[in-house]
Amino acid sequence: QVCVVFSEELQRWCRAIIQSVRHHLGRYELRCFLVDYAEYSFVERDNIRVPVGTFNKLPYRAKKCSLYCTKPLTLHLDFCATTAKIGPAKKWDTAAIHHFQNLLK
Q1: Could you tell me if residue 63 is inside a domain?
Q2: What values do phi and psi take at 13, rounded to 5?
Q3: What is the CATH number of the domain that holds 45?
Q4: What residue ranges in the chain does DSSP mark as E strands?
Q5: How confident is the prediction along the chain (105 residues), in pLDDT tens digits per residue?
Q6: I need a labelling partner for 64 at 20 to 30 A (CA). Which of 12, 41, 91, 100 fits?
Q7: Range of the domain at 35
Q8: pTM, to two decimals
Q9: Per the database record, which ranges form the Tudor domain (predicted)?
């Protein structure tokens, strides 16, 4: 369900989908996916509202997607044999993500 949250980082109200809840420093924070900015953000419980009217019918500006047929790779090091090979990985390395973002810029 889409709700409206106030993002402290963006200093504005955004549409969001709640992902999880955590208790932090005596208050509840919700991890939300901001559907118009394709970002994750933690929002305090008091900064969440129910959308009204036609606000729900506006199309999202950002969509979650993935690269077609592109699988993550990582460098596998074998210290005993002193070799390094590139092979499949379960998820993308942080360095690979940063490199890809720099290519997009």
Answers
A1: no
A2: -85, 140
A3: 2.30.30.140
A4: 2-7, 12-24, 27-34, 39-44, 48-49, 73-78, 83-88
A5: 788 999 888 898 888 999 999 887 888 889 999 988 888 889 988 889 988 877 777 777 766 667 777 888 888 888 898 888 888 888 888 888 888 888 888
A6: 12
A7: 2-56
A8: 0.55
A9: 2-68
